[in-house]
Amino acid sequence: MATMMPPPGVSQKATPVKVHVPIKKDADTIMHIPSKEETATRIEILIAMTYGDPKAADAMVQTYSQKVCRPFVEAMHQALPRELRDMVYNYLFNVERLRVGNARRRLKKIVKDQWKRPTRPNRLSWIWFLNAAFAGDNPRREMLELLYARVFAILDYPCTILDSLHRLGTFDESGCGLLPIHFVRHLRVRLVVGTWWTGKLRDPLYWSNKSGLLSWKSCFAILRQVENKRYFRMRIIIANPGRISTKHVGHFLEVFRPLYCELTTAGAHIYLQLDVCYSGIDSLIDLCQLYEQRKAKWSAILKTMIREKGVEWNRANAVRPWMPKWVSKWDEEGDKAFDEAMESRLISYEE
User: Who is most buried in 162, 181, 222, 286, counting CB within 10 A?
Assistant: First the structure.
């Protein structure tokens, strides 16, 4: 039972408020006083960690954790409510902030890796309080949930292929069924498809796919696993500083349309933008407004929007003759390839 004192400015004669913290009656079971044998074991472990064989020291730590630490953690898990358990977990994260920081950076790096696939899952156990020998399944899962929420709640995701986006809903680093997409609340995807990129802005489902990349539809389907769609925010930026195929951009919009309608209907805020770069200065074009127009007019409307951005750029830099004028350049080959695929009925938007 705790007593709260009145805040500054309030009379001290005010009746104090008593706050009751619900703790189970068997909370005394979590108190543990080490015996002489346990103290001697701890000393042996410290000596082995300092002067002995590291593998032998690790084995001793595992044995000691299973015998002493794990029963203590499980007793704490049964005695305290979730709110107080989270306070204990956050304290551990703060004490071991160096190890936790390394784990957070590693998780982000693996999730954003576009080509390499993880080969050894469940490698977070090197953090001592995330080791299965130290904590039971339930406490370990709760601690991992807090860690994942810190890492993936706000995620900036630069990539050159959408295939890497698929990993958010398939990669289980923890080994206990936790996926990054379940914790994402704000997602910013910057898809870089410059002229130097071989695939450019082409759906692997309909064009050459020697690398075994997934289709855009499969990558977008992962986003349906987002929890609390009402509070979900996502911004997709197509960055193309060179030539661009407006037909392929239209195909991108059409493939994304079902998911866009589903998420926005659920209350999510979705933004699609095209980043057209003029002499190193970015200029964003809103692509969501094209959904209000007929699909057959998307290419012409998009060209007009890009051309108007270029006119604004030239007008703003007219007083600076050293700045080159922007000239509209389209990927004619890409548009032609798309039209040929449409004529041969290779592309289909049917569900």
Answer: 162
